[in-house]
Design brief:
The protein is of the alpha+beta class and 494 residues long. The chain has 13 helices and 22 strands. Among the domains are: 4-73, no CATH class; 185-254, no CATH class; 348-494, Pleckstrin-homology domain (PH domain)/Phosphotyrosine-binding domain (PTB) (PH-domain like).
Length: 494
């Protein structure tokens, strides 16, 4: 009979802390509900009330400690020759049997509490279920986790391997190949302010400061306008600087020591300072590749490369699904992107002519989206009879926003196209952030052609391409039916 091994017992320390604080909060709630009278706060408990509160606390604490201990004892894993078995559950036992040949994603994660307790979470996924949550999540000693990870990887090839015991094992682990990519700290700091979020924050802060706060102060005659404007601009600059520093530090901490390496059939990448993670992902499990360039990325000639792959993620204690980073190359140059695409078989189709929208493109991409915005911008000045000079800053800011939005719609039109060859499709879209999605023909699951009432008149429609992922889809807008037939025929052709 194959031996069964328990998860790390040090996890029980964390369970003890959870039980203690949960018992304290529930006891306080108990005191508030049963001992507090209407319109009278409790300043001191009677002896009976104190004894009852202590009894409730102890009962809750002991009950939770017993339950957590039983859960810990019944959480075991074992080698079943052809598969890796995980058994868990208190009242309803669950057996997760993962065939070694089907396991494709193995990751090691260390959150802050894991680092303190010397633990690691080994996550295993086969990709057979449409979920970002791994099928198995095992809490192990930090030195044993990479040993078990290596055993699972090698068991696919060597059937005679014996699973090492958590109590006695050789912690010598094969070193990964030298990383082909390693993000420098200066690049990680730059990433914080070059991504779209920071630029959007500056734009919104500018609208609030110069479009609302300063113009409204003009209407109050008691305010010293010059002093108020200087103070407001100073606060605005201070907030921008503090936000820049915080976002730079956040990206350095999150992606600290980011490294990626690959061999002939898989990719390994790891990162993190406070919360650490390490993934190994087979190339065949990549469903799509996304190459993004925000406005500032384009100005500084940087790229970001993401992938779509099922099974990268986790569920926290509150049951909330947390998506893991899929940025294999969070900030890099075009040369590294080209090497990665060549290695993974996603080389871009630079010499192939793109297919673009041709019918009513200015109407659909620019004029129709601008129509409601134009009305909302003009009507207040017409019907409210606002005085022009008093609201001059708001008008200037309104015109500036209108120009920014119009330019964005024009860029979206110019950058909206697709091309295909040799079983690979490249879909490009975006305005200020340029997005390119590369999908292989074998990964495409469905293609649909949708028309709204206006499209029926114009004889065009939206092409929706769905590929293998939880929400893997690409929407190409305002194309003729011939473009849809072009994609459909290339997908169904052998």
């Amino acid at each position: 009979m194959n031996p069964k091994y328990h998860i790390a017992k040090r996890k029980y320390i964390y369970d003890i802390l959870k039980s203690f604080f949960a018992s304290v909060f529930i006891t306080l709630y108990f005191i508030t509900i049963f001992f507090e009278k209407e319109e009278q706060e409790i300043t001191e408990l009677t002896n009976t009330q104190a004894l009852l509160s202590i009894a409730v606390f102890l009962i809750l604490l002991i009950a939770q400690l017993i339950i957590y201990w039983l859960i810990l004892k019944r959480f075991v894993f074992s080698d079943q020759e052809e598969s890796f078995l995980v058994e868990k559950g208190l009242f309803f036992k669950r057996r997760i049997n993962l065939p070694y040949k089907n396991i494709h994603t193995i990751s090691i994660k260390r959150r802050f509490k894991d680092i303190i307790l010397g633990l690691s979470s080994l996550q295993i996924d086969t990709g057979t279920t449409a979920s970002i949550i791994p099928e198995a999540n095992i809490v192990l000693d930090k030195s044993y986790a990479p040993v078990l990870k290596q055993f699972i990887e090698k068991k696919k090839i060597d059937k005679d391997l014996v699973i090492p015991s958590p109590d006695k094992f050789d912690n010598t682990v094969d070193e990964n190949d030298a990383p082909i990519y390693q993000a420098r700290k200066t690049e990680l700091m730059l990433m914080g302010i070059l991504r779209p979020g920071f630029l959007l924050f500056i734009f919104i802060a500018t609208l609030i400061c110069f479009g609302i706060v300063i113009p409204l102060s003009i209407l109050d005659p008691d305010i010293n306008q010059r002093v108020f404007t200087i103070i407001t601009i100073s606060v605005f600059v201070f907030i921008i600087i503090i936000t820049a520093v915080i976002t730079m530090l956040y990206h350095v901490i999150k992606y600290y020591n980011y490294q990626m390496s690959y061999d002939f059939d898989s990719i390994t990448y790891k990162y993190g300072l406070v919360s650490k993670a390490e993934f190994k992902l087979p190339l065949k499990r990549i469903n799509a590749v996304h190459i993004n360039q925000s406005l500032l990325y384009r100005l500084f000639n940087y790229y970001e490369l993401n992938v779509s792959a099922i099974g990268i993620g986790e569920q926290n204690e509150n049951g909330q699904i947390k998506l893991e980073s899929k940025s294999l190359l969070p900030i890099t140059r075009s040369e590294t992107i080209e090497l990665f695409l060549k290695h993974t078989g996603y080389s871009e189709l630079n010499e192939i002519v793109s297919i673009k929208p041709t019918r009513y493109k200015i109407l659909n991409f620019i004029l129709i989206p601008l129509a409601p915005l134009t009305l909302l911008s003009i009507l207040p000045y017409i019907f409210l009879e606002l005085r022009f000079m008093e609201l001059l800053p708001i008008i200037i800011l309104n015109l500036f926003s209108y120009v920014i939005i119009t330019l964005g719609l024009w860029l979206r039109l110019k950058q909206h196209h697709f091309k295909s060859a040799n079983g690979l499709f490249v879909f490009q879209r975006g305005a200020y952030t340029l997005k390119r999605t590369l999908v292989k023909k074998i990964k495409i699951q469905a293609i649909t052609y949708k028309k709204n009432p206006i499209h029926i008149i114009e004889n065009i429609g939206h092409i929706k391409i769905k590929y293998k992922d939880l929400s893997g889809k690409v929407l190409m807008r305002n194309f003729e039916s011939a473009s849809f037939e072009n994609i459909k025929n290339k997908v169904i052709m052998n």
